[in-house]
């Protein structure tokens, strides 16, 4: 077997396990989802899960990374439709917060993810988002749109606000009502960065 074919088989196995786990975690939650059931759905063994992800927690990390990356891509696509780079940045943050209303995102990324994997700000997907936000903030500072603040600090605070708003929405007994409040406060806080407030 060629190394390329072996690599393709490994990727195929990982993809099957992630797909099965994503479905199981969304439907049943992390703690209730059975490793035997999800490996059976994937047509694989527990050994394949252990070999590729170490354990169930490692598999959850891969699922969270995939969903969170998709969320970032969707938010960026929404932001790219905005009339200005600033409005694009705001639209991205708001879109991320609004995704907390989606059952899969809510359960896997915002409830089970932090409970099992710990601080979301340390997740690889969140670090990729931070880097992208920092680049946008740096460009907005250079254009004179945003005050000349520390770009990393501003990016961390913007991303942290959006993430924590999402966590609040997901954990709320009344997510629709909390969403409105969270989005309004997010926009209000962020405008403090503008050189000339809107």
Automatic annotation (TrEMBL):
Location of the DNA-binding region in this protein: 34-53
Domain HTH tetR-type, chain residue ranges per copy: 11-71
Entries under Pfam families matching the protein: TetR_C_41, TetR_N
Alphabetical keyword list: DNA-binding
Gene Ontology MF term list: DNA-binding transcription factor activity; transcription cis-regulatory region binding
PANTHER family: HTH-TYPE TRANSCRIPTIONAL REGULATOR RUTR, HTH-TYPE TRANSCRIPTIONAL REGULATOR UIDR
Name of this protein: TetR family transcriptional regulator
């Amino acid at each position: 077997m060629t190394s390329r074919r072996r690599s393709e088989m490994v990727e195929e196995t990982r993809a099957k396990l992630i797909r099965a786990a994503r479905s199981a975690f969304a439907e049943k939650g992390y703690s209730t989802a059975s490793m035997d059931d999800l490996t059976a759905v994937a047509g694989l063994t527990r050994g394949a899960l252990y070999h590729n992800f170490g354990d169930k927690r490692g598999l959850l990390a891969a699922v969270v990374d995939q969903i969170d990356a998709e969320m970032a891509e969707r938010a960026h696509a929404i932001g790219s439709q905005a009339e200005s780079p600033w409005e694009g940045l705001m639209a991205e943050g708001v879109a991320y917060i609004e995704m907390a209303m989606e059952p899969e995102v809510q359960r896997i990324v915002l409830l089970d993810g932090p409970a099992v994997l710990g601080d979301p700000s340390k997740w690889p997907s969140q670090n990729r988002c931070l880097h992208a936000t920092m680049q946008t903030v740096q460009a907005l500072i250079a254009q004179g749109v945003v005050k000349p603040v520390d770009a990393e600090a501003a990016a961390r605070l913007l991303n942290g606000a959006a993430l924590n708003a999402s966590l609040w929405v997901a954990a709320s007994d009344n997510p629709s009502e909390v969403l409105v409040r969270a989005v309004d406060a997010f926009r209000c806080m962020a405008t403090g960065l503008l050189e000339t407030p809107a």
